[in-house]
Batch of 2 targets.
Target 1
Amino acid sequence: MKPKAENTSAPTASGTGTRRFTLAMRGFFLLYLAGGLVFLFLPDVVSRVLGLAPPLDRFWVALSVSMMAMLAYLSRESSRDPANAACVKAHLLSKGASVAGFLLAYLALDRPLAAYLVGAGVDLAILLSVWRLWRGV
């Protein structure tokens, strides 16, 4: 009988850090779920608040809603099993890609919009929070 391979890439569960991580992931689950619903049902309002042109079609709305659904799922699964490194790493990858995308969009525009810097800042804060909390598990 083979011994079980140990998952060394995930932190091990321990008391207070695990509780904080679990609560934060539950909070992110609710935020992503709410954000996805707002993007789906109020895309023009979101654009107006951010100072962007309303979406001409719903192609990008569908993509943003699917990303929010994926992040909600990853957050929920991470809250259930903090040692599930794959869910946490996918969450971090998504936020990292989002930060990079916002910064590239800001730099590529003829008229840079503050909304892109706000998006990069918010997603960077989430990335760092998730990473810090996960490391404390």
Target 2
Amino acid sequence: MKIDLPPLICDYLCHRALVDRHPAYLHLDRQGTVLAAGGDLANYRVEPLQTGAPVSTVFDFMEGLLPLEDDACHLECLQPQAGACIDAHIIPESGGYWLLLLDTSEEEQRRQAMQQKANELALLREAQARQLSGGNASTANVERLALPFEAAGERKDLAVLAVGLRGAAAAASTAAPAVYLEQLFLLRRRLAAHFQARAGVLYRQTGDLLMVFFGLLTAATAKEEQALKALMPILQDEWGAAPEKQLGAGTRLRPALGLASGPAIVGLDQTPGAAGLQAVGAPLQAADLLQQRAQPGELLIDQTIFEKAGALQDRFDALPADSVPGTGRVYTYRKKTLT
């Protein structure tokens, strides 16, 4: 696409694009021999540059690239020897090529800094999840914990996941108590760790029921998307939670899942000996009703989650109206099958 712009604007845009980029160039023949060079070559530590030398002896990333089969070639974020981080543009012309070098060291440093911040945020978020989960947030650690809500109470929009471990009744009546509890606790720990690593806060784990909050901690994506992404490996049995011991035929513990979204009141009960994190609201009740209705390995979601499911919407089927009283329209996740 060619854009017709006045020369003054073209000059301005060229200056803005190249400022602090230390542009340099090498003119090459078809075999990659250096014919001429110019620009800020000192920034790339290639001065003095001998004409007539193969370009690969100057920049090893050029080894084997010429002649080009395509119209042009763009190599990003190269770090030759101890020089600057560069973008290299190979531009063909009749009888040879131009090699344009642009310094991207500042961009790379910013990218690395952003990655470091993202890693630190992920670690902080996981630490917060552990501290808040399972009633761990109490008067003793409120001051050192950067709470994402007012300790005295605050209304927050949450995606609430309820997980019921199906098969527990059959397993509890047939398996040895120690073996049954070992597997129950193992599965609960694995589920808790899985969700905590994905911005989930474990609110409750009692017997064969877990409840997890999404949207309580800072994250880059919407709470509904956080929850659905965290659930995909579980729904596809790809998260490595197979029990290490068998409880008996037909007694494998499998999660039945209910996910609902909406406002809830959250806060800390700072009474000595109290459970800490507390929450009340419609999405907690709806998620619990959905997991009670769900079959082992099934996910049921409410209308709000479905509306925020994005590209995953086509993986859900609507259930008949009032199929789960008290939750509104309900959708079930349809697993992909091999054809």
